[in-house]
Structures are given as structure tokens and as C-alpha cells.
Amino acid sequence: MRDGVIQAAIVAGGRGVRMRPATDLLPKPMLPVAGKPVLEHLSLWLERSGVREVFMCLGYKAEAISSYFGDGSRFGLKLDYRVETEPRGTAGCVRDLLNAREGGAASGDLLVVYGDLFVDMDLGRLLDFHRGHDGAATVVVRETDHPLDSDLARLDGDRIAGFYRAKPGEPYDNIACAALWVLRPRLLERVPVDRPTDFGKDIFPAAIAAGEKVMAYRTSETVMDVGTPERVERFERLWRARR
After folding, report:
1. Measured distance CA(133)–CA(119) in Å, rounded
2. Can you give the pLDDT of all 243 residues of the chain as single tens digits?
3. In sequence order, what are the beta bridge partners of 117?
4. Best label site of 9, 98, 174, 178, fewest CB within 10 Å?
5. How far is CA 71 from CA 91, 103, 144, 243, in A?
6. What is the three-class DSSP state of 213?
7. Furthest C-alpha separation in the chain
């Protein structure tokens, strides 16, 4: 990092099957939410938050995204597109950025956010929290209204003790990972290069098992998954109520 600046990676390569048939024509991050593609909302939040360099990790219908955003200058960003030729998973595609980020500020910590999120939170406070500990990662967590299909976190103070999925009829803590985290390079070095992997299912649990600290940043700010028709509808209702 240089003078508090951080690079970001947006994971936006998935097929978006839960949003079909709309995603037969457009990749999920390009579907309109509150008048703009959700990926545009996300890009504007990053720019407002002081991020200037963004890697877009793409796959399905990548050209629809790159043709819309171009070099990123229209949004105050410098964009670097990385298009996977075979599925790498949410962690694998970010691991592939290590070589691209070598040297200077590029070797510092990395903000990772999934491309189907609407975010309106204070990034500076998150980064201050992250810089105040020596763990391998900071994961944003918050209460969720859809716990049965979320990656939930078991917390030990500010430290994440484990991840799990809720099961009907069994007790659970309603604290979910928000698909937004800050990573130190040593966490990415744990990601295998020879197979697809996922942060929540594979990499974070393996790091915890190895004794690494994965820290939880709890927030009630807006970090909303808009990756299903029902969640888009709920978001639109909340958006209209704010106007």
C-alpha cells in the first residue's frame, strides 16, 4: 500500500444461474438495479472510497462488462480485466492476480468484493480495523435475512473461529460473511494454483485450521446481496423508500 491507497479486485465471473433467464443475455453484475448495473454501483462506491486501481476477475460474458466500463476512466478508476479461460473459483481467480500485482503498492493488501453486492459503507473504517491487527484477512460480517443460504461465521470476539451453513431446526448465530474482505498477500499464497477454490468453503477454513487469524469486521452498514430476483425486489423497495 502507498499512502493508505489500496487496490481492489471484483469477482464477477460466475454464470448467475439464479437470475436466469435474464443472465442468458447479460452477466449477472450487468443486470440493472435501481437504474444502473449493480457493477456500476459497486464501481462508484469504490471511487468514492478512494480506490483507484481495480482488477475485474471475469468469466461468463466478460465482453459485456469490458465494453461497458472500458478503461474505467469514466468512473474515476483504472481497470485491469482478467478473464479466466477455465473456472478458477472465487479464490483461484484472485490468486491469479499475485503476479500482476508484484512490486510497490501492488504487493500490499487487497480489497476483494463480489460483483453482485450493493455496498454503501465506510471503507476507511474497515481498512483502519484491518491495519490494526496482524491477521491474514479481515472479513466483513453482518446479520442476514437469508441465513439458510449464507456462509455463517462463528465468532470468538473479533476473531472468526469457523464457518458453517445453517440447517433447519438447528440453532445458529445469524452472522453471515458479506462477500467483502481485505486480504494480506500471505493469505493468497495459500490458494492452490491447480484447482478451483472458494474463499468461504476452502481458503479461510484452511487458514484458520493452520493457526492463522481471520478477523471479523462487524457492521450494520449497507452490504446487500442482490444476486437473486427476490433480493433485487427487496433492494428496489428499500431504495425507493430512501428517495
Report:
1. 24
2. 334 568 999 998 776 556 556 566 677 888 888 888 999 999 999 999 999 999 999 988 899 999 999 999 999 999 999 998 888 999 999 998 887 775 544 468 999 999 989 999 999 999 999 999 999 999 999 988 777 677 899 999 999 999 988 777 776 788 989 999 999 999 999 999 999 999 999 999 999 999 999 999 999 998 988 767 677 777 677 766 665
3. 225
4. 174
5. 24, 22, 35, 31
6. coil
7. 51
Q: How far is CA 21 from CA 24, 44, 219, 237, in A?
A: 5, 27, 33, 22
For the whole model, what pTM was predicted? Answer: 0.89
Alpha carbon distance 2, 151 (integer Å): 32
Helix (H) or strand (E) holding 142: strand 137-143
Burial bucket for residue 15 (CB in 10 Å: 0-12, 13-18, 19+): middle
